[in-house]
């Protein structure tokens, strides 16, 4: 559908930069105004719409480190709107986007926006709510005889489509 097309266009852009040896500065100065904007079903799959703003560096460098676009001190306010779904055929790998199978998992997968738990309210043990719940679920699954292989197959939230302005 159109979401896969948008995703593949983003993937093509990332791969084009990588092939040219151009890398984007990954420094994010702040993330603000994170909001779970909507929760809907697309067919039988839940979709979460998350919006947030980021202050980030706009700087692209070539293979030897020369700036080809932006500047090392070019700070931009960028607004994101992410549609997140449970595992899809298109996912992330260690280098960014991947069009390989859903078994791949990288550092880019996201938990739902409103995790709760373990925060400044004094509850919990300092871990973020999602991490704590994942660990508790793993422990409960282990007690119930669930194998680690079954735990590994649980679906993670992935960005299906993103809008940047």
Automatic annotation (TrEMBL):
Domain Tim44-like per the UniProt entry, residue ranges: 2-87
Compartment(s): Mitochondrion inner membrane
Sample GO molecular function, one term: protein-folding chaperone binding
UniProt-listed GO biological process terms: protein import into mitochondrial matrix
Region of interest (Disordered), residue spans: 93-165
Pfam families per UniProt: Tim44 (PF04280)
Species annotation: Erythrolobus australicus
Chief localization: mitochondrion
Keywords: Membrane, Mitochondrion, Mitochondrion inner membrane, Transit peptide
The protein's name in its UniProt record: Tim44-like domain-containing protein
């Amino acid at each position: 559908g159109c979401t896969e097309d948008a995703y593949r266009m983003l993937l093509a852009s990332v791969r084009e930069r990588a092939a040219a040896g151009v890398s984007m500065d990954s420094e994010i100065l702040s993330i603000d105004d994170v909001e779970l904007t909507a929760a809907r079903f697309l067919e039988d799959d839940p979709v979460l719409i998350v919006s947030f703003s980021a202050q980030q560096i706009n700087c692209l460098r070539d293979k030897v480190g020369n700036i080809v676009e932006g500047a090392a001190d070019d700070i931009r306010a960028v607004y994101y709107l992410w549609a997140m779904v449970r595992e899809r055929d298109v996912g992330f790998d260690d280098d960014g986007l991947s069009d390989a199978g859903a078994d791949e998992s990288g550092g880019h997968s996201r938990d739902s926006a409103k995790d709760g738990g373990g925060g400044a309210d004094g509850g919990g043990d300092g871990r973020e709510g999602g991490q704590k719940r994942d660990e508790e679920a793993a422990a409960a699954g282990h007690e119930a005889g669930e194998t680690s292989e079954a735990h590994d197959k649980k679906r993670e939230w992935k960005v299906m489509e993103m809008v940047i302005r």
